[in-house]
Write a sequence for this structure.
């Protein structure tokens, strides 16, 4: 019985020794988490081409072949990439050289860190604001006439939901519960008109403003931030005093509200 | 008689094994549904720690430590290895990228089955040596001393000796493969 036990133990230990040797000399078989991407297959023989023991893959190892200034412009062999179309030099504008933050070379690690994982936080601030450097503007009527300023409606977390703080320009109220097209003719969001509504005919508006001594009245929202005419009067008086909009003290309401229909 | 033996004696251990697999599937599904699969990646650590803690029984048996009731420590060994194995199974998931971790996992499962077999054999041994209880009482031993004697009698029963001759090498294999897997992770993981 003891001899049998000894034999079993020897066999077990021998098998373990073989496995340990395989782990040491054939890591691709025993421990590699999936094959390397095709472009790196020639590096497969030596894990330490990319891995620093007990630390991981450091950017300097990647940059031995991939010069940051040339990424997207030239191959690692120095050949110019003819068909690369980029408005923005993305890799050249990263905050930090941290290749594995986005790139995982082993196919098996895809579930943890997909190849090509991206975050806007990796990009320098000035580049982050140049949305159209990487993103093509939609061709719909809403976006066609807009240039830049994507962050007015969109965040870097996602295109949707898109929000617009219309209150910065004009506050909607019960009298101004209208569609975009009512004020923005032909979906031109860089301009507006208040004459689309029967309440604001040209002659009526002209008459009311000239009566108050106001001759320049075409830029309505400079004073009229809502249907509240007291607020408009308040802003107009501040403008007359030469104050600029960011210096306007907050309006706290007046004797008239936006319920007045005397225009 | 045979059916009765299987249903009364074998079934509890079979159910314990099936429960382990079922619990793994449920926990894995919950982690996926809640988008917390990253927890599974790290579950290997507490799993291994629980399994290591279970070795207090082995140390007590070899008198390396003197605290703790052997019976309680054995129960703890059974519970901790089951729970630790659950965590390791969830950690493994169903992703197959290479050979070594799966060899370690298979060794762990063989170890679990071996352990459950030991539980079954121990139960049989205990019933067999329980007959000796009367004779210990006749010799004037106290209830506690009798209990202690009976426990060591059952675990040292010949059948258990044979079982241990299998369980220990399996444990050795699992330990070596597990340690090697952990070492390679430490060596190649992206720590920075």
């Amino acid at each position: 019985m003891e001899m049998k036990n000894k034999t079993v133990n020897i066999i077990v230990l021998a098998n373990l020794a073989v496995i340990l040797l395989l782990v040491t000399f054939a890591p691709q078989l025993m421990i590699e988490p999936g094959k390397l991407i095709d472009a790196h297959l020639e590096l497969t023989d030596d894990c330490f081409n990319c891995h620093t023991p007990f630390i991981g893959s450091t950017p300097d190892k990647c940059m031995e072949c991939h010069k940051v200034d040339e990424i997207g412009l030239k191959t690692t062999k120095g050949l110019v990439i003819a068909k690369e179309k980029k408005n923005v030099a993305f890799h050249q504008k990263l905050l930090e050289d941290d290749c594995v933050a986005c790139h995982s070379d082993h196919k098996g690690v895809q579930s943890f860190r997909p190849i090509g994982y991206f975050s806007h936080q990796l990009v320098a601030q000035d580049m982050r604001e140049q949305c159209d450097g990487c993103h093509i503007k939609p061709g719909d009527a809403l976006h066609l006439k807009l240039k830049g300023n994507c962050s007015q409606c969109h965040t870097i977390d996602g295109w949707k939901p898109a929000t617009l703080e219309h209150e910065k320009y004009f506050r909607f109220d019960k009298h101004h519960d209208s569609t975009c097209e009512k004020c923005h003719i032909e979906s031109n969001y860089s301009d507006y008109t208040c004459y689309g509504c029967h309440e604001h005919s040209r002659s009526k508006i002209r008459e009311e403003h000239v009566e108050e001594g106001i001759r320049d009245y075409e830029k309505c929202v400079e004073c009229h931030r809502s249907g509240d005419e007291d607020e408009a009067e308040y802003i107009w008086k501040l403008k007359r005093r030469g104050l600029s909009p960011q210096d306007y003290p907050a309006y706290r309401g007046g004797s008239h509200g936006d319920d007045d229909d005397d225009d | 008689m045979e059916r009765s033996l299987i249903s009364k004696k074998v079934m509890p251990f079979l159910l314990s094994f099936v429960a382990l697999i079922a619990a793994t599937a449920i926990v894995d599904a919950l982690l996926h549904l809640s988008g917390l699969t990253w927890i599974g990646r790290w579950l290997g650590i507490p799993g291994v720690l629980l399994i290591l803690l279970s070795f207090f029984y082995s140390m007590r048996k070899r008198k390396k430590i003197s605290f703790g009731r052997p019976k309680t420590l054995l129960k703890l060994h059974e519970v901790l290895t089951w729970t630790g194995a659950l965590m390791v199974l969830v950690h493994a998931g169903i992703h197959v990228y290479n050979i070594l971790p799966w060899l370690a996992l298979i060794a762990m499962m063989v170890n679990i089955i071996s352990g459950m077999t030991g539980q079954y054999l121990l139960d049989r041994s205990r019933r067999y040596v329980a007959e000796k209880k009367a004779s210990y009482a006749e010799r004037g031993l106290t209830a506690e001393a009798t209990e202690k004697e009976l426990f060591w009698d059952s675990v040292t029963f010949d059948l258990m000796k044979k079982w241990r001759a299998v369980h220990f090498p399996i444990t050795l294999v699992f330990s070596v493969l597990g340690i090697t897997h952990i070492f390679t992770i430490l060596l190649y993981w992206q720590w920075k």
